[in-house]
Amino acid sequence: MYWSHVAHLRVIIRPVLIAFITISICVLWIHSNTSADGKLLAATQSVQPCPLISPKLIGWTNLSLETMSAMSKEDEAIVEFRMKEAGVKAGGRYEPSECRSRHQVAIIVPIRNRTEHLTVFLRYMHPFLQRQQLNYVIIVVEQSERWPFNRGMLMNIGFREAQLLHGKYQCVILHDVDMLPEHDGNPYTCPTNGKPRQMAFSIDRWNDYNSIPWSFFGAVSAISANDFQLINGYSNAFWGWGGEDDQLFQRTRSQNLTVVRAFDGNVSQVVHYKTMSHPKATPNPDRMSLINEGWTKFKMDGLVDLRYTRLDLKLKPLYTRIVVDIQPYNITT
Length: 333
Prior knowledge:
Blueprint: H1 2-32, H2 65-73, H3 76-86, E1 93-94, E2 104-111, H4 115-131, E3 135-143, H5 151-166, E4 171-175, E5 179-181, E6 197-198, E7 220-224, H6 225-230, H7 244-254, E8 273-275, H8 287-293, E9 309-315, E10 320-325
Parallel strand pairs: 2-3, 2-4, 3-10
Antiparallel strand pairs: 1-3, 4-7, 5-8, 6-7, 9-10
Helix pairs in contact: 2-4
Domain Galactosyltransferase N-terminal: 50-191
Cofactor: Mn(2+)
Transmembrane segments: 12-31
């Protein structure tokens, strides 16, 4: 009789105890996420997705030589403090606090001996990207001095390191350090799968902002992580200036991807780019032959056979800095 009463009490008490524990947990969560005046903290509201069009956009910026010079001369400590206050974390990572971004973007910037350009780029691009309410990281891949510059291989390295260091970003924007978008209505959002976006098709130094031919796929381009994997990234074979972006365009076509442009390619102030001046690079004398033979090597030349030595990795206040040593290697058919 005694044990039957005990069993009966267990049946009654158990659901009551579970309910009590559940209510206690809820009360503790609300208390820990509530301010002194009884209102839930803003962090609980950040689950809402950001609006399709950011309310923070300001429009066109006059990127005159005077403006860029002033950016480069501003005290570094003051800039870094201001960026930190705005929410930029170590390694150049940012996500909006007021809403959940719809886009996770890795900005890949290949450089060598471009310190002044990089300074202006970072100081301009962080506020620009924040006004679009993006979840982003800026990754700068710097090549050592041993061999001619290889932009395509550095882009591949940036893509690989972005996935390893910072998680799975939806897309990458492949960005030359000397290119600045003049209008924050120019979308740095992720393109849909199957439709990589050529972004820098209206450049001040290209016939005074006139449209560049549609086959151009260099300077600034956005592509989903899935598509970049699908086309095997860039060729690693282009040493010196030129050709790697032409072959990247070929790779998109080989996989039936459609290269698109913002606003259907219509040239307006919204898509203008300003170029920071620099000495003209020496063209790669082999670039045309590499482009022509590229169709046969897409599957074996790119991300799949990427080789490099990481010499340095630092999560700087405004960017992730990766210094690499790379060298040519034979590609067999």
